[in-house]
Design brief:
Elements lengths: L5 H13 L8 E4 L27 E11 L2 E10 L5 E9 L1 H4 L11 E4 L2 H6 L4 E7 L12 E7 L3 H5 L24 E3 L3 E4 L12 E7 L2 E10 H4 L5 E4 L11 E3 L2 E7 L4 E7 L2 E3 L1
Parallel strand pairs: 1-2
Antiparallel strand pairs: 2-3, 3-4, 4-15, 5-6, 6-7, 7-11, 8-9, 9-10, 10-11, 12-14, 13-16, 14-15
Length: about 280
């Protein structure tokens, strides 16, 4: 893997545009890049997500890596070379991490992994915390063994400090997307959880849980049964958008795609279709 400067990336983008007539497609790869963007930097307006970049050249930014049950998980982001705006954020992990999850694993923070800095700066996805729950939890239908993937907006230090007894305020209705009710559960070092109302009484294959702390949207959580992941198939989870997160201007994802790579025997959990919010 080679590291390329911001200047060389810009030149590559110009070259690709010049060759558009011959269907140029290009993805550069760098270890880290930190373009500085103003709030109106060209991110998509409401309803026009940034996730489908088409033939536009992008740079893949590699983030940090860490261990999940003996397998290496690594974060990444894709940045539009022309605008400097993040279009995809996620992490990859071998499916072996899920099949090898032990019966007696810790309840919280089996994996804590920061997203690349450009994603932390531009989007509400600061880091992911993966929890393996061997017996699931309530309410119904979440009793199946499953993995919680909390993509937190706050920093690791800020989330570690969450104490449910310290702030019991509920979020305003403007922070609740369509199909979600008031939070029913709060967990220290996580926050308040709001379940999709459509899940109740359903056959559960995976959901997006909304998280809150101090009345603001604080995390987006793909919650996925182990059995779904061991099917080794690509699937999508749409993400409903609230009127406001209650925070600063940021990019909010509208889709999570769990992409299964058969050759690598791994998943990429990838957010895209970003909208501006607040």
């Amino acid at each position: 893997m080679t590291h390329r400067s911001t200047a060389s990336l810009a030149l590559a983008a110009v070259a690709c545009v010049a060759l558009a007539a011959v269907a140029c497609t290009q993805t550069n790869v760098v270890n880290e890049t930190t373009p500085s963007l103003p709030p109106d930097s060209g991110a998509a307006a409401d309803g026009a997500g940034t996730g489908d970049a088409g033939e536009r050249p992008t740079t893949r930014v590699e983030g940090k890596s860490s261990d999940l049950f003996g397998s290496a998980a690594a974060s990444y982001a894709f940045v539009d070379d022309e605008t400097g705006v993040v279009v995809k954020v996620g992490y990859t992990v071998p499916v072996k991490a899920f099949s090898d999850a032990p019966a007696g694993a810790p309840f919280q923070d089996d994996l804590v992994l920061e997203m690349p800095k450009v994603a932390r700066d531009q989007t509400m996805l600061n880091h992911v915390r993966v929890n393996w729950l061997t017996s699931g939890h309530g309410p119904s239908p979440y009793s199946a063994p499953h993995f919680d993937m909390h993509f937190q907006r706050g920093t690791v230090v800020e989330v570690d400090a969450i104490d449910c007894a310290a702030d019991k305020r509920l979020p305003p209705t403007t922070a609740l997307p369509t199909g979600y009710g008031a939070p029913e559960l709060c967990v220290n070092a996580m926050g308040m959880h709001s379940w999709p109302q459509a899940d109740k009484g359903s056959t559960w294959k995976g959901s997006i849980i909304m998280g809150y702390w101090a009345t603001k949207v604080s995390f987006i959580e793909p919650m996925i049964p182990k059995a779904t992941l061991l099917e080794k198939k690509t699937f999508e989870l749409p993400i409903n958008k609230p009127a406001s997160t209650g925070g600063a201007h940021t990019l909010y994802p509208r889709r999570l795609t769990a992409k299964y790579d058969e050759a690598a025997a791994s998943y990429s959990f990838e957010f895209d279709q970003f909208d501006e919010i607040d």
